[in-house]
Design a protein that fits this description.
By secondary structure, the protein is mostly beta strands. Helix content is 0%, strand content 66%. A hairpin with a 6-residue loop joins β13 (197-206) and β14.
Length: 306
């Protein structure tokens, strides 16, 4: 039930290496995102790695006052060496200040930079294993972490320093293959309404052919427990032939059979990353749940038509 099945250990949230015989596209990635409405500034950054290919990849975007003002995309970076408590790829650095709880994110490129501390506000949500058997003791061979937190520090935009004090989200996955051209389309949502509530909801199309199966999943923190979503209904409003998300309505049911209704009523900016024919579009969105307000990510992904 609830929190107990999602508990991660320190080794789960470190870097991992694949076992011999695993496929070339074995993947590990670390993703962080936040939006500070007072500073009108946000970040989304993903550092990924394919150890079996000796490669890594990164996309990083800064947004400010509705504009994407700085981006870094590198799909053929060298595989970063394994270091204790640190992952560095180019100018981007992730430091494990307190495993499972706190990370320092540092980046500098010319007149743009970031130095913030991401601190968790809840236990980690660890997606349950695909098989029903209980996992063996110790670190898992594969996993998917979601986690809400606070973000404090400074960003530099065009040489001007901005204080950052807001909520944010992170995602850590390892062991699944990551071939972007196999993902037909998806929506990935995250938002923090406060220290007592964050959510993550996903809609992804899987399978071959013109009619893939749509799968819904996710989790949330209610101030007491992290838990699965047992039902997700997502209605996304789009423009430009379905390639740009404008907002959505979301209905979620958690393990306690409670319903949660959320609306995304504004998208401030959209950061674009391209993997061959696959587009990843991270929208910085405002969410509402009753009289409460949150800021987070409304991510849309799809394979463009030939």
């Amino acid at each position: 039930m609830a929190s107990s099945v999602h508990m991660a250990v320190k080794e789960d949230d470190q870097r991992h290496l694949p076992k011999p015989g695993t496929p070339p596209m074995w993947n590990e990635s670390f993703w962080f995102a936040f939006y500070d409405p007072k500073a009108e500034t946000g970040v989304t950054v993903r550092v990924g790695a394919h150890p079996n290919k000796g490669e890594a990849n990164i996309y990083l975007h800064f947004v400010h006052q509705g504009w994407v003002v700085h981006s870094l995309i590198d799909h053929r970076a060298p595989f970063p060496p394994i270091e204790e408590g640190r992952l560095a790829l180019g100018n981007m650095e992730i430091i494990w200040e307190k495993p499972l709880e706190s990370f320092r994110l540092r980046y500098q490129s010319g007149a743009n930079g970031m130095d913030v501390v991401w601190a968790g506000i809840s236990p980690i949500f660890l997606y349950p294993p695909r098989t029903p058997e209980p996992p063996p003791p110790g670190p898992r061979e594969g996993g998917h972490i979601e986690h809400g937190g606070t973000v404090k520090g400074t960003m530099t935009i065009g040489g001007k320093q901005l204080p950052i004090d807001c909520f944010g989200h992170r995602d850590h996955t390892w062991a699944d293959e990551r071939d972007w051209n196999r993902l037909h389309r998806w929506f990935y949502l995250s938002g923090e309404f406060g220290k007592d509530f964050w959510f993550n909801a996903v809609r992804v199309a899987v399978g071959e052919g013109d009619n893939p199966i749509e799968v819904f999943t996710g989790g949330l923190w209610d101030g007491k427990e992290v838990m699965n979503l047992t039902d997700v209904q997502m209605d996304v409003q789009t423009a430009d032939g379905g390639t740009r998300a404008l907002g959505l309505t979301l209905r979620m049911v958690d393990e306690r059979q409670r319903e949660h209704h959320i609306v995304a009523d504004k998208v401030y900016a959209i950061a674009y990353s391209q993997f061959d024919r696959t587009w990843v579009k991270d929208g910085f969105a405002r969410y509402r749940m009753g009289d409460r307000e949150a800021y987070g990510i409304l991510e849309q992904g799809y394979i463009e038509k030939p």
